[in-house]
Amino acid sequence: MGSIFAVPLARATVEEFLAWRREWPGSVVGTLLTATVNHHNADYRAPTLILMGNEAQGLPPELAAACDVNVKIPMRGRADSLNLSVATGIMIYAVTDRLL
Description:
Structural class: alpha/beta
Shape: globular
Order of helices and strands: HEEEHEH
Strand order of the largest sheet: 2-4-1-3
Radius of gyration: 14 Å
Helix content: 25-40%
Number of domains: 1
CATH class: Alpha Beta
Strand content: 15-25%
Largest sheet: 4 strands, parallel
CATH architecture: 3-Layer(aba) Sandwich
Distance between the termini: 25 Å
CATH topology: Alpha/beta knot
Number of strands: 4
């Protein structure tokens, strides 16, 4: 609780983000339902920036195109999505597990 007050946040338009992204030294990984790369098998380079879309529509096409790789978290059964906070936790774990 309260971690949000200790983490730097930035707000940007898509255009501002895309301009900033060109200078990002590491990898940018997006999550997409239609991706073919399993999140365990992606090539993460430090530092890694993870882009997560919203639960209803996912990552916008222009942001998905700006990613070095788009990954999918495999689902079991008939489910096709996870709660955004759960999916983000899975991605943070996967990235840090691969980079550490």
